[in-house]
Amino acid sequence: xxxxxxxxxxVVLSGxxxxxxxxxxxxxxxxxxxENINRxxxxxxxxxxxxxxxxxxxxxxxxxxxxxxxxxxxxxxGGRTGVRRLADGRRxxxxxxxxxxxxx
Length: 104
Fold this sequence. Notes:
By secondary structure, the chain is mostly beta strands. The protein has a domain at 9-78: Roll (SH3 type barrels), CATH 2.30.30.30. It has strands at residues 9-12, 21-28, 31-34, 39-44, 55-60, 63-64, 68-72, 77-79, 81-85, 91-95.
C-alpha cells in the first residue's frame, strides 16, 4: 500500500519549494508530480504534425517521495504515515504522531 497517493495534500520538506503545499497529480514509482510545485521552464521545438507550437513552456517536474510528507490538517504540518489493519480486515493509512486514520 502506498503511503502517498494521487489526490493527497502534501507539503514539501526540502529544496527551493520547502514549506509549500500542493495536491499530488500522479505517482511515478519513486517520484511524484505535485500541482504547482517544482515548476521549470522547458524550451520546446515546434512540432507541426502534433500541432504543438514551439516556445518556452512552464511545467511541473517530478519530486522524489522522500522530499514530501502527507499534510496533517490537525497539526497544520507534514506528518509521517503508517499502515494499520482494522478489525474488519481493511488496511488503512494513519498518522504516526496522533494515530488519526486518513482513509475512511
